[in-house]
Design goal:
Layout: H1 3-9, E1 20-27, H2 30-61, H3 67-80, H4 82-85, H5 90-107, E2 126-130, E3 135-138, E4 143-148, E5 152-157, E6 165-173, E7 179-186, E8 200-204, E9 210-212, H6 227-250, H7 257-290, E10 294-298, H8 302-305, H9 320-332, H10 335-348, E11 352-356, E12 381-383, E13 390-392, H11 393-405, E14 431-432
Parallel strand pairs: 8-10, 10-11, 11-14
Antiparallel strand pairs: 1-5, 1-7, 2-6, 3-4, 4-5, 6-7, 8-9, 12-13
Helix pairs in contact: 2-5, 3-5, 6-7, 7-10
Length: 444
């Protein structure tokens, strides 16, 4: 029984959930930006205090507090503390609801989320609001404004229409201090029929960003920083180190205004790099989901792949700097973000997403299906020791990934210790998980 059917059976009103998101660049005035910053820190404090209260109540009395009970304490705090009372009343209530959801995800055995964590002062600011608390007015073809309680109208760049009814809103900052507003909207999305396009296997790499099984050349991510920007970033990093040493030596560790300007310039460059990287990722995943009926990728464990090799003081690691550079290169290609985007884009464009176990994909021949580590002669070269098939190593891996996703009764046998998805791609639309592997945990 679905959520809506359960609600109808219980006699409750069914609310349309937010099924799409819209994000826009917000342009507050200096006075509005100052107040939004204060509100963001207040929301962070409410989260931390509420989390500490829940931990204390459970340790002392084994009581599990929820948002409904904590809202009563919040009402008293708004009367006693002016800096909490200045915040719109809906914002801390939304913070407590999000804390409830964090606890629910932690208690869910099938969810990968861990225990809720405290938010640092240096974390990015966020002010959540319900949909009925905000109102959007279109000014012209490129601009609109959002009315925020206790703040008034704030302009934002209307880069795309909302397309639905606003269910929630969130005002956030990025690493460089730019403000953005995100809306969760209900557009009444329905199931998209299969698009009928051919399937494809994709191998996401480090040196070669993505190699498709039906293409002869890899897709490479453009440089996220120009040579001049790289040199400027290197110079700023060196300047920052010198200024931090001077601050510790002469100012007791307090940051000077020059050091703050240096940190702000570094944050601006890195935020620009992140926006360019995300733009390429969106274009890549949209093309994969729109032009293919089945997208097969590896079910990678990014946290395990990027684990530090430093070891402990008793047993120090080896090749620590090389492993750190590899971890940065892996994370720079956003493998987790690509997968997250494909999860919701594939059903929207009428395609399926298949997650294939990554074991031995780079050492198996895509023609004769022979597994032999000696076939991977170099980083970019694959020469099969059985049939002599020669190919680019990443392209051969993409062919193996597609074969495992499409494996049927007539396909050549695959070693039993390799878990593949034996279900036909058209039998289960949307996201499909590979068969469970003994000793391995499959996250939903």
């Amino acid at each position: 029984m679905t959520v809506k059917s359960k609600a109808k059976a219980a006699g409750r009103s069914v609310k349309d959930p937010a099924d799409a998101g819209r994000k826009y660049r917000l342009y507050p005035t200096p006075q509005q930006a100052q107040r939004l910053s204060e509100w963001g820190h207040t929301c962070r404090t409410v989260w931390n205090v509420a989390l500490e209260q829940r931990i204390y109540a459970y340790r002392q009395r084994r009581i599990r507090l929820r948002a409904d009970e904590q809202c009563r304490y919040l009402t008293r705090a708004r009367h006693d503390l002016p800096w909490i009372g200045d915040l719109p009343s809906q914002a801390p209530q939304q913070v407590l609801k999000y804390l409830d959801r964090a606890y629910d995800n932690f208690w869910d055995a099938g969810h990968p989320a861990g225990f809720p964590r405290f938010k640092k002062r240096t974390a990015r600011l966020a002010i959540p609001l319900p949909g009925q608390a905000v109102r959007v007015t279109r000014l012209n073809r490129k601009w609109a404004c959002v009315r925020i309680p206790k703040l008034g109208d704030v302009k934002f760049r209307l880069t795309r229409p909302l397309g639905g009814r606003i269910k929630n809103a969130s005002i956030r900052t990025d690493s460089s201090g730019r403000w953005y507003v995100s809306f969760g909207v209900h557009i009444g999305r329905t199931a998209t029929p299969p698009n009928g396009h051919p399937p494809v296997g994709v191998d996401f790499g480090v040196k070669q960003t993505a190699y498709l099984s039906d293409e002869t050349e890899p897709r490479l991510m453009p440089q996220t920083l120009t040579e001049g920007e790289k040199q400027r970033l290197t110079g700023l990093e060196r300047r920052k180190e010198r200024q931090i040493v001077q601050a510790k030596k002469h100012r007791g560790g307090r940051y000077s205004n020059r050091l703050r300007r240096t940190l702000r310039a570094i944050a601006d460059l890195k935020a620009r790099q992140a926006r360019r990287r995300l733009d390429f990722t969106h274009k890549l995943t949209t093309d994969l989901a729109k032009n293919h009926g089945l997208v097969a990728i590896e079910d990678l464990r990014v946290k395990q792949m990027t684990r530090s090799a430093s070891g402990t003081r008793a047993a120090p690691g080896v090749h620590v700097s090389q492993k750190a550079a590899l971890n940065r290169a892996i994370l720079d290609n956003l493998p987790g973000e690509r997968r997250r985007q494909l999860v919701y884009k594939c059903p929207a464009y009428g395609s399926d997403l298949s997650l294939v176990h990554p074991a031995r994909t780079s050492q198996t021949c895509g023609v004769c299906h022979l597994w032999d580590p000696a076939s991977r002669v170099s980083r970019d070269r694959f020469i099969c020791t059985g049939c002599g098939h020669t190919d680019d190593a990443d392209h051969n891996a993409s062919v193996v990934i597609l074969r495992r996703a499409l494996r049927g009764p007539a396909a050549p046998p695959v070693p039993q210790d390799i878990a593949v998805n034996s279900t036909h791609p058209q039998a289960m639309p949307g996201l499909r998980r590979p068969a469970p592997v003994p000793g391995a945990r499959v996250n939903p």
